[in-house]
Specification:
The complex is a heterodimer of chains A (about 180) and B (about 180).
Chain A (H helix, E strand, L loop, with lengths): L2 H11 L1 H29 L2 E5 L5 E3 L2 E12 L3 H5 L6 E11 L9 E9 L6 E3 L14 E2 L3 E2 L5 E10 L7 E6 L5 E5 L1
Parallel strand pairs in A: 1-11, 7-9
Antiparallel strand pairs in A: 2-3, 3-4, 4-9, 5-6, 5-8, 5-10, 10-11
Chain B lengths: L2 H21 L3 H5 L2 E5 L4 E3 L4 E15 L2 E17 L8 E6 L2 E4 L19 E9 L6 E8 L8 E8 L5 E6 L4 E2 L3
Parallel strand pairs in B: 1-9, 3-10
Antiparallel strand pairs in B: 2-3, 3-4, 4-7, 5-6, 5-8, 7-11, 8-9
The chains are: A alpha+beta (about 180), B mainly beta (about 180).
Chain lengths: ~180, ~180
């Protein structure tokens, strides 16, 4: 029997099974992937861009970037604040009004400085302990979305020279994840 | 298709499935550390860590500005330069000798793992391990990473030869210092 001779009867005999496989295999694959897809989509950052001075409503609070400045090591302020050579200090001041957040929905908020790069985002957390700068009185270095009077949160980052002007300032709270603010 | 062909095809599929199952990495390999070998003095680079072990010293007592700590055995003090590549956070490690593993001691207040290390901002500092004298042998494995036992992440591994190394009565250790990036 030639190759063609046995293939046709075999296909005819198993056509319904093959048809079922053609439908069921991609269907099973799509179903399996859709479970992860929904989770993946639900976990993607939901970004809200907020320009300086604009109020953003976030987690029941009002958040507004008041000021963001870069202190280079070679500047007078940098020398005064002990900014190490090759680095710069980024000081972001954010007004937080969480006075209407119910106590049971209190949350810890956080700021990050992110430098998007092809090899992966570089992320700095507030700290800057290697410099001598400390938030002045009247400013908080702790961010909370909880019932307390309006306050000014100051996030201080020490970053390599050249990063401060371009890195993104991101603001988030644990219970609001994956929603986050990008303060510009 | 005759029965012999079908049987051979079936057998082939079973063998292929066996090969796939037999060569699939174990979960411990998939989730385990991704080792990056290095020697003392050599810079090693992982996914989120760049580190150079600058030297190793042994001592019975460590002292810093306002702390002194005597080891029940011996302190193994690793001096290193470290920076992260992507995220701020700790750089820490473990020391394995003959199947036994010690984490970095949390006794010295100046330990590097108690400082947040930032991307692009290298620091120099020490990690100290408190081990029994019986652990002072050649072939100790120092593992450095973003956690003591990295999972699915880089682990820098450096072989240390500790046998015969002098044990100092006392050694001063200092807080981590930033160095030029």
């Amino acid at each position: 029997m030639t190759r063609r001779g046995w293939l046709r009867p075999w296909l005819r005999r198993w056509r319904w099974v093959l048809l079922a496989l053609v439908v069921l295999v991609p269907g099973a694959a799509l179903t399996a992937m859709s479970v992860g897809t929904f989770d993946h989509l639900a976990g993607l950052p939901q970004i809200q861009n907020v320009s300086r001075g604009t109020v953003a409503h976030y987690g029941g609070a009002e958040v507004r970037l008041l000021d963001r400045r870069v202190v280079t090591a070679s500047s007078a302020a940098g020398r005064r604040d002990g900014v190490p050579a090759g680095t710069e200090l980024v000081i972001a001041t954010i007004r937080v009004d969480a006075s209407r957040v119910p106590a049971k929905r209190s949350d810890t908020c956080d700021a990050e400085l992110v430098d998007p790069a092809p090899g992966g985002d570089r992320v700095w957390r507030p700290g800057g302990s290697r410099a001598d700068y400390f938030p002045p009185s009247g400013y908080s270095s702790i961010c909370q979305l909880s019932a307390r009077p309006v306050y000014r949160y100051q996030a201080v980052f020490l970053v390599p020279r050249g990063v401060g002007a371009t890195a993104e300032l991101r603001f988030s709270a644990l219970r609001q994840t994956p929603r986050e603010l990008r303060l510009r | 298709m005759n029965r012999v062909t079908a049987a051979l095809a079936g057998l082939g599929l079973v063998v292929a499935a066996g090969l796939v199952a037999g060569t699939a990495p174990a979960p411990s390999v998939l989730q385990g550390p991704i080792p990056v070998g290095a020697a003392v003095g050599q810079q090693a680079q992982g996914r989120d860590i760049v580190v150079t072990v600058q030297g190793v010293a042994l001592a019975r007592t460590l002292r810093s500005d306002d702390w002194t700590g005597a080891a029940s055995g011996v302190w193994v003090v690793v001096r290193l330069r470290a920076e992260t590549r992507l995220t701020s956070g700790a750089v820490t490690g473990s020391l394995t000798v003959g199947g036994r593993t010690w984490n970095v001691s949390d006794r010295p207040p100046v330990s590097l793992d108690q400082t947040s290390v930032d991307p692009g901002l290298p620091v120099e500092g020490v990690l100290a391990f408190e081990v029994p004298r019986s652990a002072l042998v050649d072939g100790a494995i120092l593992q450095l990473g973003r956690s003591p036992r990295p999972q699915a992440d880089s682990a820098i591994r450096v072989r240390l030869d500790l046998a015969g190394a002098p044990v100092r009565p006392s050694l001063r250790v200092d807080a981590p210092q930033g160095v030029g990036s």
